[in-house]
Amino acid sequence: MDYKVTLIPGDGIGPEIVREACKVLDKVGAVYGHNFQYTEILMGGCSIDACGVPLTDEAIAIAKSGDSVLLGAVGGNVGQSNWYQLPPNLRPEAGLLKIRKELGLFCNLRPAVLFRQLKNACPLKDELIGDGFDFLVVRELTGGVYFGPRETKVENGIRKAVDTMPYDENEIRRIAKWAFDVAMKRNKKVCSVDKANVLDTSRLWRQVVKEVAAEYPEVELTDMLVDNCAMQMVKDPRQFDVVLTENMFGDILSDEASMVTGSIGMLSSASLGETKLGLYEPSHGSAPDIAGQNKANPIATILSAAMMLRYSFDLMEEADKIEEAINKVLDQGYRTIDIMSEGCTLIGTKEMGDLIAAQIV
Ligand code: NAD
Q1: Is the whole-model pTM more than 0.90?
Q2: DSSP-assigned states of every residue in 164-185
């Protein structure tokens, strides 16, 4: 089968890590008989340099016409690069916001997986993590307090600011459906996180999530207050499978979830909408400090490509194969510098991509 993948190498380490992800995808294609056709577009600082804006309308049209988008990272050294002298809507990261909006991506998936080979990097005690954990935060991406009406004013000489957190039932229902669909492909457990003891939006959230749950009798639903969830993630991360939550809570919890794994170069993510077209990218940035030095860990991007196979193309076996290949290479003791530990073999970006691709047979 043919799949049209739009590539956004972006800035910094972006081109290096995307190259390795394509190497792995091509190997999957050769073994399983798929054809991944790539079209590259510019986004971020490289687009500012070439076209004067972080993302052109032509680039957006190309992304919309493909089946999926794989992104490296955008942005430069914030203190030094001229890109950051520009107004905020013309800076590299504005391209990211624009493409998410244009593609209608309202669902963000952030896996928190502790690879057993990297247990040393986890800041939690051994007895809390056992053999490791594997859960997924499903975050609503386009509603809530980040997009609600806001105001800053002076009233009777006192400065005052107001943000509001609106959600309607349709916004809640569509993200809840994503969470339950994803749970069906995993361990069939959804923990819905809110602040229903205080917020009206959370009470509506709970009701609508329950209604959606009724359509998925195989999936077990629990509710948890967000403050408790923040504690549970460090106390007993193994209890979670899919964590479903609104935008701001998800922003905070997904970062917490990533950090309990301890390894920034291993964290993938996906943003999805109503259709199968998704945007897949590592959770880390463009790491300008190590760009062009063959030092970047490509695994987060390769895992993002595996997510693309699973969620946009329904290629479950192929996605599992990539994850198995990564595990094998880690078992053999190969490490990039960010995950290096004593007794392991230090390798570069390209070598990591080669070794992972070689395991796909
Ligand atoms: P960063 O994630 O780029 O880097 C933080 C630290 O982690 C650095 O020391 C870096 O070398 C290291 N690191 C990151 N990814 C790595 C990898 N794959 N392998 C090995 N080491 C890795 O965060 P930052 O330094 O705060 O941001 C740099 C630039 O990236 C900024 O311009 C920022 O705006 C941008 N950024 C982009 C995205 C995105 O494109 N989605 C996300 C976050 C930050």
Answers
A1: yes
A2: -----HHHHHHHHHHHHHHHHT
